Amino acid sequence: MRFFYTLIIIIFISSCSFDDKSGIWKNDNDIIKIKKDSDQFKDFKEISSSYEYFDKEVVFDQKKLIKIPKLVNPTEWKENFYNQNNNFENFKYGFFNKILLKSKKISKYNINDYLLFINDKLILNDEGGNIIIFSIEKNQVITKFNFYKKNYKKFKKDLNLIVENEIIYISDNIGYIYAYNFNKNELVWAKNFKVPFSANLKISENKLFTVDINNTFIILNKETGNIIKQIPTEESLVKKNFKNNLSQNNESILYLNTFGSLYAIDKKTLNIKWFLNLNPSLEANNANTFDANQIINDNDRIIINTNKFTYVIDSKSGSIIFRTNFTSLIKPLIVKDHLYLVSKNDLLISFDLEDGKIIFSHNIKKKITDFLNTKGEQIQLKFLVMANSNLLIFLKNSYVLNFSIEGDLKAVNKLPVKIKTNPIFIDTTMLLADTKKKLFVIN
């Protein structure tokens, strides 16, 4: 029946719509808008709908003014991807690279990539299933909670966390969803769905949103864990690394499943408003090649960055505004009316979301070699963020490239620690865990 349902949906969609001395080159850890006026989009003449990735360098026009958003100084980081729409802001940061705090080894298990912060407490989890509450003020673990019994001890846990007030909501790759009060150190509720979960969590009012590995969208009452509604969607035939992911705006929960379909679900009525398939091939033997980064959205635009294309989509109607054949291995960034990303062929690209033009496109490896006067080699990307009105590209070998908003390389810095987790920015400092499972506060 599910296969038949999937087939009907597909038919409907088809008809509708870095030098040797510094070590930067080494890893220390071993569309086209649908419009006839093509002159307006002349930069896209080099961009086709084929699978040949865009590889052209575009020089920034110095006459163009790029609006820079105001600096923000977060005191909380409650979700994996910072906020409800998964898009970063312009974070205030000191850039002194001074270690303000260094913890002892936090866990014997590998620490998962995402950190949360609320009420002056850092929240992290590890592959042993431990939820660890760390006090920055005391520089010590104040609580460690493990939900799992002995029969799950050797099982590697992949947990998804979101925090609200004093409650942490957790879903896992075993099939459990549970709520934990970290101030009282007690379990609030737990439910066993017997199907693993594979998406970040979202909260809206009294509702908790998640997705299982069968691509079933699930809405729970966050107070009790009881099911409010389930929405089955197309299921991929082969399970893979790409996870379902969620984002939200004021009106909708946005859900991208592993089949390649994007759904907008009304947060009040919990009904599907529209859906759109972004898989470039609907053939059964190619359906599982789909891959993507996390959904980000801003105002009325949704950005979907897949392994083939980058899409700009109208959040009201689900219509594709632009489709470009540049894409990124890491989550892109919306800054005002511009999209910034690092393409698979190592181009730092700025794209105007209003008129569809490329603002600039710079070869990062060439920028590094010119800046350091060295021979370029392979770089491995980890994280893109905006801080102090500059673009920071974190590499896996713990170097950070500091680009101006116009795409000029201003500095190449090395973090004082070997980074493991994605960093978070709190009160002008940067918090992260290193490869030795120690926590650091840096400024």
Describe this structure as you would to a colleague:
Strand 14 and strand 15 form a beta hairpin. Helices cover 5% and strands 39% of the residues. It has a six-stranded mixed beta sheet with strand order 1-2-28-29-30-31, with helices on one face. A four-stranded antiparallel beta sheet has the order 3-34-33-32, with no helix packed on it. With 443 residues, it is mainly beta. The protein is globular and about 55 Å long. It has a single domain, classed as YVTN repeat-like/Quinoprotein amine dehydrogenase (Methylamine Dehydrogenase, Chain H, 7 Propeller). The model is unreliable at 3-18, 28-50 and 283-287 (pLDDT under 50). The chain contains two helices and 34 strands.
Question: Can you lay out the helices and strands and say which pair or pack?
Answer:
Elements: H1 2-16, E1 71-72, E2 90-91, E3 99-105, E4 116-118, E5 121-125, E6 130-135, E7 140-146, E8 160-164, E9 167-171, E10 176-181, E11 186-192, E12 202-204, E13 207-211, E14 216-221, E15 227-232, E16 245-248, E17 252-256, E18 261-266, E19 272-277, E20 296-298, E21 301-305, E22 310-314, E23 320-324, E24 333-335, E25 338-342, E26 347-352, E27 358-363, H2 364-372, E28 381-387, E29 390-395, E30 399-403, E31 409-414, E32 424-426, E33 429-433, E34 438-442
Parallel strand pairs: 1-2, 2-28
Antiparallel strand pairs: 3-34, 4-5, 5-6, 6-7, 8-9, 9-10, 10-11, 12-13, 13-14, 14-15, 16-17, 17-18, 18-19, 20-21, 21-22, 22-23, 24-25, 25-26, 26-27, 28-29, 29-30, 30-31, 32-33, 33-34
